[in-house]
Amino acid sequence: MATTAKKTSKAGSSTSAASPRTARVRGESAGEHTTRRENAEHGFTASASLAADLQRVHVDLIELHLQGKQAHWNIVGRNFRDLHLQLDEIVDAAREFSDDIGERLRALHATPDGRSRTVAETTSLDEFPNGEIDTAEAVDLITDRLESVVRTMRSVHDDVDEADPTSADILHTIIERLEQLAWMVSAENRTPAGR
Predict the structure, then answer these.
(1) What pLDDT is attached to residue 195?
(2) 134 has which bridge partners?
(3) Rounded Cα–Cα distance for residues 131 and 154 (Å)
(4) Which residues neighbour 35 within 8 Å (Cβ) at sequence distance 6 or greater?
(5) Residue 3: pLDDT above 90?
(6) Sign of CA dihedral 159, 161, 163, 169
(7) What is the pLDDT of residues 123-181, one digit of tens each?
(8) Residue 44 pLDDT class (50, 70, 90 cuts)
(9) Residue 143: how many CB atoms within 10 A of its CB?
(10) pTM, two decimal places
């Protein structure tokens, strides 16, 4: 919607002046016009290499949440309920983190690609087995997937940090949480040291 403000000149006549929000082109409907503030985010733009590094992280996180759900639905055996719930915790974290990376890419004027084909073709994670899976085997597989995503993030970290320390800070948060989750889930199959 266009807004105008009345200005009074020194001579006392009133003139119409456009407010900072008005820049409607003749023939456009209200709500369809551009404004002087539109595209105001002329800030930092990701380089192609920064976008590619964040995209690698993005697809691995998407694949992690998909594989976590595959395990969640198909595990059987000892400690089923605890692992079933723990897998949901991993899935929730992976979904949230993939969204954080996707939104970071958009904030840097890059376009994240989370399409299933892209994820399948570019993830560093091994394919998760189909069908029922024993809880102990699932623990090892999910631990491996968590550690693979962390390896991807650590492999791109220094380049990301050099290009954009803010994006590197996001990676720090994700690494910390995924390493914690890997420790927690892997403890299911461990025995005390020295025994």
Answers:
(1) 67
(2) 76
(3) 32
(4) 20, 21, 22, 23
(5) no
(6) positive
(7) 999 999 999 999 999 999 999 999 999 999 999 999 999 999 999 999 999 999 999 99
(8) confident
(9) 19
(10) 0.78
Q: Angle at which helices 165-186 and 48-74 pack, to 10 degrees?
A: 20
DSSP string, the chain: ---EEEEE-TTS-EEEEE-TT--PPTTPPTTSS--TTTT---S----HHHHHHHHHHHHHHHHHHHHHHHHHHHEESTTHHHHHHHHHHHHHHHHHHHHHHHHHHHHTT------HHHHHHH--SPPPPPS-EEHHHHHHHHHHHHHHHHHHHHHHHHHHHHH-HHHHHHHHHHHHHHHHHHHHHHGGG---TT-
Q: How far apart are CA 63 and CA 94, in angstroms?
A: 9
Cβ atoms 2, 24 nearer than 8 A: yes
Please state the φ and ψ torsions of residue 191, each to the nearest 5 degrees.
-120, 160
Which residue has tokens 């631990």?
Answer: 143
> Which residues, in sequence order, are CB contacts of 99 under 8 Å at separation 6+?
none
> For 83-105, what is the mean pLDDT?
98
Average pLDDT of the segment spanning 29-44: 53
Compute the distance between CA of residue 187 and CA of residue 195 in angstroms, rounded to an integer.
Answer: 15
| Angle at 91 (CA atoms; ends 89, 94), nearest 5 degrees | 110
Q: How far apart are CA 119 and CA 123, in angstroms?
A: 6
